[in-house]
Design brief:
heterotrimer; A mainly alpha (about 300); B alpha+beta (about 425); C mainly alpha (about 280); A: about 300 residues; mainly alpha; MetI-like fold; 2 domains; 13 helices; about 75% helix; about 0% strand; globular; B: about 425 residues; alpha+beta; D-Maltodextrin-Binding Protein, domain 2; 6-stranded mixed β-sheet; 3-stranded antiparallel β-sheet
């Protein structure tokens, strides 16, 4: 790849190519990121917005976080929600991808269009519809479930208890995320060479063995990155939760990390603490995805 | 490569030019300054907004732009916009519960020298107080509202109950009216703005100033009494979800189209709700819409009675109005305030069911049952604590959470102590 | 024969899943055609008999939709355009070259995506306000580009690595310069990948809400998600007109869906041609 005559040019080109991306990241993210780190070590509230100087308290905010039982409840809830939803999304997406590759052209296109429609619906619009569907008095979900004999769902308030609240949230997030997983997995599946599969079939491998022995290893890179992205996004999920809270309860029992930070910042105006929690979330995400990052860097080297 | 760079550069330049053209830059009118007023929610009717705009133009030659912020997003926007001299609104409506916090933070201009000109002592004292610091006035009252009870005369008659004269009687009546399908008195579990009336009625407070610091007083014995009363009332009289807070109450008093009966026999609502309560009929102008017209035979009003008769202190609705300290248009903003506090505008507020800041004009509210109820309940009404950090307390959702748990049946004293601690962390700003 | 029946059965299953999945979208369209009074009833109406376009007329009445549409389109197109270019350069850099700082850059790209956005809005506001770019297309676009570039770099990297460098080498042996080889051979193969990444970037920018809320405070400069949220807020004196809300939601969703259907052919082929590699 490195032709000797080009060596001097090749050495500078990558840096030149990187300038726009790095530039925009520094502009768009650089200042906010630095601000966030600095503010997390200050006492910064509404009065500081209006000019009062912000005292440096170094790690006091972080220490306060460590002792805040409510925060750790939110962290635990967020991790649980994130893992359950991401795994479910992955499973359903993968199954749909397999379905897509096993059916004829017409059903496949129909399914893909349906998934595309769901994927392209703006979050605010989709949330409006979903909240409507789960409305306790006029929602279609309660109505349809009530029709099932023996199930009493009239006026069941899905948003009343945290458990059912997060079930609804999970269903919605899965509905929104599966299309991406399904399409990516499908792309991966189409790259698995048919000849290899046929050869294996001739050798006597049954469906399960073909799946676990050939297909899965080949699409592992795709699944890994898709899973990682789901984890990152599901940990930070915000719009869906905040809109569900608007329709249900604003109590802290229904918070995940995204809404918790937003409430700290926008509502309670404690920006110092909000920044500290954001850094904490960043740390948690890095921890959760550490394995993947490491394997990615190792694979890159080889 | 070069060709691509040129294309990219041209595109960037074009985009920048386009963007420059699209940012909102209103040219200055000759003579007057253009200013912006932020109003919260839809409380100020269009008629009044038009009046302000035309009067301002007549008085100064400048254009007044009115922007409406939703109550939910207003706090975030005020926080970012008010300190920014280039982008701050000039005059803002500020909810009375947020006024102390922003005033303490230095968001507003000192209006003390205009105070007498704008109305002086005739201005609603409790609202003036929450907008003042160290004797100087920063945020003045804009309008006041109040809450009172609306009830279904037909349902009450059938149950054989009459309008109560004490709070205990009310609690009992409401419980007696409850059936499996209908609330005797509908209110959500997390609805603290209405629930706090029971706290106030029993002499309790949400917080008091102790020396220099504010302290949350949920565990105060009087407060606890009020909360326990509320807890019993919720269990006995309301079918609303325990997670519901301030909702659209009139929906529950009007007949439900499918069942033909109302969800509740009684509700508590701000005064302007009466426009939406009544018999449903298609709007003659627009058949897809429904209009509710008040029917005196079916619907009625009364004010929440106090513990020993009289009137119970309810939560005073309403807003203050202030000039942003960072605004570059101080003089023009003051002109707008003069219009707001003019006799004409104050009368218009009253005529539209909004309690005028200047009590001399309270009579413009009229003398129908709504005006009477409004004035009666407002006279005894109370505000939230004028603490520097109160906006943060409200924004944090702690009160919704607390009331929700109380109405969910928790141990009131235990919860009160727990939440006192949480609120104390925020209340002093 | 067995294979064919099971294929048919699976086909039926796929269609069933499709119908279930698309139900909320259908519900939105259905509700947008019904008047609010019907929607308030306790018995949901499943098919809009006797429906009308009144809700749409009402939602479009004050003309704010068109302004918001213009805003969203400008911001999204600018953001996607520059995001693709910047990300493409970066993707080529990290997949075709070995250089110092390469690994750090890759890790940085990953980590930047993990930062929660909710805590950044004050800093972003201050930054954008200080250069007088609030309420402007450019201000929001810059933030959006920065927000979407990391993921796009990631996606494009997969596509670029999917095209072996040998193809370029072969073309160079034939006499083309390195750049010429890249443009003639590799770039056309990457076109579907660019489309796929562009579509995803489009989606993210089009639907973005929290940054827009803070950077576009003025009513005259709203994007579509902000405009829609305005509909959903039940103001103190107005009850939510659900029919209008659904109509407004449909209006916001339609441009995206149309755009999607147009490019979906290229999209699926783009993904199919060896897209998201680890």
């Amino acid at each position: 790849m490195t032709v000797t005559a080009d060596r001097r040019r090749t050495n500078r080109s990558p840096y030149l190519l990187l300038i726009p991306a790095v530039g925009i990241l520094v502009i768009g993210m650089g200042y906010p990121l630095v601000w966030q780190v600095v503010t997390s070590m200050q006492e910064y509230g509404l009065q500081q917005q209006f000019g009062k100087p912000a005292p440096f308290v170094l790690f006091d905010n972080y220490l306060a976080l460590a002792g805040n039982a409510d925060l750790w409840a939110v962290v635990a809830r967020s991790i649980a929600f994130c893992l359950l939803t991401a795994v479910a999304t992955l499973a359903v997406g993968l199954l749909l991808a397999l379905l897509m590759s096993a059916v004829g052209r017409a059903p496949r296109i129909i399914l893909q269009i349906a998934l595309l429609l769901a994927w392209s619906m703006p979050v605010v619009a989709a949330m409006t519809v979903w909240i409507w569907l789960f409305d306790r008095r006029r929602g279609a979900v309660n109505y349809l479930l009530d029709l099932v004999p023996g199930v009493e769902m009239n006026r069941f308030n899905w948003l009343e208890s945290p458990t059912t609240f997060f079930i609804v949230a999970s269903v919605i997030v899965i509905w929104m995320s599966v299309p991406f997983v399904a399409f990516s997995s499908y792309a991966g599946l189409t790259q698995v060479s048919d000849e290899v599969l046929e050869a294996a079939q001739l050798d006597g491998a049954n469906g399960r063995q073909r799946f676990f022995g050939i297909i899965l290893p080949m699409i592992k890179p795709v699944i890994a990155i898709v899973f990682l992205l789901q984890i990152i996004w599901d940990l930070r999920v915000f719009t869906q939760i905040t809109m569900l809270q608007d329709a249900g309860s604003k109590s802290g029992d229904f918070d995940l990390l995204g809404t918790y930070i937003y409430k700290l910042g926008t509502k309670s105006q404690d920006f110092g603490m909000a920044s500290a929690v954001s850094i904490l979330v960043l740390a948690i995400t890095i921890v959760l995805s550490w394995f993947y990052i490491r394997s990615l860097l190792k694979e890159d080297e080889s | 490569m070069r060709r691509r760079i040129i294309v990219v550069a041209a595109a960037t330049a074009a985009a920048l030019v386009l963007a420059g053209c699209s940012s909102a830059d209103s040219p200055e009118e000759s003579g007057g300054t253009d200013i912006t007023l932020w109003l919260n929610g839809g409380d100020t009717p269009d008629e009044l907004r038009d009046y302000l705009t035309s009067e301002y133009e007549d008085a100064t030659g400048g254009t007044l732009t009115i922007e409406e912020q939703s109550w939910t997003d207003a706090l975030a926007k005020l926080t970012t916009a008010l300190p920014d001299a280039d982008n701050t609104p000039d005059v803002v409506e500020i909810g009375n519960t947020w006024a102390p916090t922003f005033t303490y933070a230095g968001a507003f201009t000192d209006l003390s020298d205009m105070y007498d000109e704008l109305g002086g002592d005739a201005l609603l004292p409790s609202f003036v107080e929450v907008g003042s610091v160290d004797g100087a006035e920063y945020a003045l009252p804009y309008y006041f509202g109040s809450r009172y009870m609306f009830y279904r005369k037909d349902v009450w008659e059938k149950a054989g109950v009459t309008v109560p004269t004490t709070l205990t009687e009310f609690n009992e009546t409401a419980a007696a009216l409850k059936t499996d399908d209908q609330s005797g008195f509908y209110f959500g579990g997390e609805d603290w703005r209405n629930g706090v009336s029971w706290v106030f009625a029993n002499g309790g407070e949400l917080a008091v100033k102790d020396g220099d610091e504010w302290k949350s007083t949920l565990s105060d014995p009087n407060t606890v009494t009020g909360l326990e009363q509320l807890q019993t009332l919720f269990a006995d009289a309301s079918l609303a979800p325990v997670t519901e807070s301030d909702s659209t109450p009139w929906v529950n008093l009007n007949n439900n189209e499918t069942t033909g009966a109302p969800e509740a026999a009684t509700i508590i609502a701000p005064g302007w709700a009466h426009w939406s309560i009544g018999d449903a009929a298609p709007d003659p102008e627009d058949p897809t819409k429904v209009v509710n017209t008040w029917n005196d035979a079916v619907f009625g009003t009364f004010v929440l009675p106090g513990v020993d008769g009289g009137v119970a202190p309810v939560f005073a609705g309403g807003s203050n109005i202030a000039i942003s300290a960072a605004s570059k248009n101080q003089e023009s903003s003051k002109e707008l305030l003069k219009i707001v506090f003019s006799d004409e505008y104050q009368k218009m507020l009253g005529e539209n069911g909004l309690g005028p800041a200047n009590l001399d004009f309270a009579s413009s509210l009229g003398d129908d049952q709504f005006a009477t109820a409004l004035i009666e309940s407002a006279a005894e009404s109370k505000l939230t604590p004028a603490a520097p950090g109160w906006a943060a307390v409200e924004g944090s959702g702690l009160l919704e959470e607390f009331f929700g748990k109380v109405n969910g049946g928790g141990d009131v004293e235990e919860l009160a102590t727990e939440y006192d601690a949480k609120i104390d962390e925020l209340i002093n700003g | 024969m067995r294979a064919r029946t099971s294929r048919a059965l699976l086909g039926a299953l796929a269609i069933l899943v499709a119908l279930l999945w698309v139900f909320p979208v259908y519900w939105m369209a259905n509700s947008s055609l019904l008047p609010n009074t019907t929607l308030q009833s306790f018995i949901p109406t499943f098919v809009p008999f006797g429906g009308s376009l009144d809700n749409f007329a009402a939602a479009l009445a004050d003309g704010e939709f068109y302004a918001a549409l213009g805003m969203s389109v400008s911001i999204t197109l600018i953001a996607v355009f520059f995001c693709l270019i910047f990300a493409f350069f970066a993707a080529v850099a990290i997949s075709r070259f070995r250089f110092r700082g390469r690994k750090s850059f890759i890790v940085a790209v990953l980590v930047v995506q993990m930062l929660p956005a909710e805590g950044l809005f004050i800093a972003q506001y201050k930054m954008v306000a200080s250069v007088h770019l609030l309420d402007s297309v450019i201000g929001v676009s810059v933030i959006y580009i920065a927000a979407v570039v990391p993921f796009t770099i990631w996606m494009l990297r997969g596509f670029v690595t999917g095209v072996p460098a040998d193809l370029e080498e072969a073309a160079m042996v034939d006499g083309l310069s390195r750049f010429g080889a890249f443009m003639r051979i590799t770039f056309p193969l990457l076109a579907p990948g660019l489309v796929a990444s562009g579509v995803y970037a489009f989606l993210q920018a089009w639907n973005e809400f929290t940054v827009a809320l803070v950077l576009l405070p003025s009513e005259s400069a709203q994007t579509l998600p902000l405009w829609l949220r305005g509909f959903v807020q039940a103001s103190a004196t107005r009850e939510t007109d659900w029919g209008q809300v659904m109509a407004a939601s449909t209006l916001v969703a339609v441009p995206v869906i149309v755009f999607f259907l147009i490019v979906q052919g290229r999209l699926t082929s783009g993904l199919v041609s060896g897209a998201v590699k680890g």
